[in-house]
Specification:
The protein is of the alpha+beta class. The chain folds into two domains: about 55 residues; about 200 residues, Umud Fragment, subunit A. Helices cover about 20% and strands about 30% of the residues. The protein contains five helices and 16 strands.
């Protein structure tokens, strides 16, 4: 059992604003009932309080229950995601998350290969996005950038050096598992030798590392093993440990838009 962690992000801010504006709306309606006729000019707290209630409440409901649109801040998921991408996050894939505790109304479970948005376990006010590689109970082996799960290696094919500005001097690799394919980025100087952090609770207990870039983990119950597609430049489970299920936030399904590269709009993940 994990201690309850209180998250405070844009969702919690919208919840509090919805609460305050909702109270303003109720107070104004009660005051109107006591008046013989409406005032010629509304008080300032009505204009900036109760009249914003519907707009803010709709925004909050959409972000919590249906879909979200976070912005990608780093290159840890390149080339799948680029810095500046706005993502369409489907909450119905796994179920809406309630604010502050991120408690879920379960409607589904993350699957291997999903691009998952979650609360960073070390600071639940932050949202991270990574690819789910290991489910609870999976035996995940990582060897120089190539992954195998429960003894079945992912099909990996080297594509050559990247051509986009962000990918120059980096190697691109096509990875296929269970019918889904994605492109990964490998640093030729590292080539998958990023090591596990031995100081992180859980990794020492459930993982064994023979050398940098060669390790194996058994994912504990209620947790997931997450990796970035930019395999040699990603703060993921190798650095901070397994992801608790209760911190899962939603499934990223498309790039909505990137204002620096409009061709990426509506790209499926």
């Amino acid at each position: 059992m994990h201690p309850v962690q209180i998250g405070f992000s844009i969702n919690e801010i919208l919840f509090l604003v919805s609460l305050v504006t909702g109270l303003c709306w109720v107070a104004w309606r009660l005051r109107l009932r006591r008046m013989t006729e409406p005032p010629a000019k509304k008080p300032l707290w009505v204009s900036f309080g109760s009249e914003l209630f519907v707009v803010v409440a709709l925004m909050f409901t959409c972000r919590i229950a249906l879909a979200d649109w976070p912005k990608v801040p780093s290159g840890s998921m390149e080339p799948t995601l680029r810095v500046g991408d706005y993502l369409l996050v489907n909450h119905l894939a796994y179920g809406p998350r309630l604010p502050f505790t991120n408690t879920a109304i379960e409607m589904g479970r993350p699957q291997r290969g999903d691009v998952v948005v979650f609360r960073y376990p070390l600071d639940v006010s932050q949202f991270y996005v990574k690819r789910l590689v290991g489910l609870p109970g999976d035996r995940v082996q990582f060897k120089d950038g190539v992954v195998s799960v429960n003894g079945a290696p992912f099909d990996a094919e080297l594509l050559g050096e990247g051509t986009a500005d962000e990918d120059r001097h980096q190697l691109l690799m096509r990875e296929t598992s269970e019918g889904s394919t994605r492109t990964l980025k490998i640093n030729p100087l590292w080539q998958g030798r990023m090591r596990l952090n031995p100081r992180v609770a859980g990794l020492a207990e459930h993982c064994r590392s023979e050398r940098d870039g060669l390790w194996a983990c058994t994912v504990p119950p209620g947790h997931y093993l997450m990796l970035g597609d930019n395999r040699d430049n990603s703060a993921d489970s190798r650095e901070w440990g397994f992801l608790p299920h209760e911190q899962v936030y939603g499934k990223a399904v498309r790039v909505l838009i990137n204002f620096s590269d409009l061709k990426r709009a509506w790209t499926a993940l």
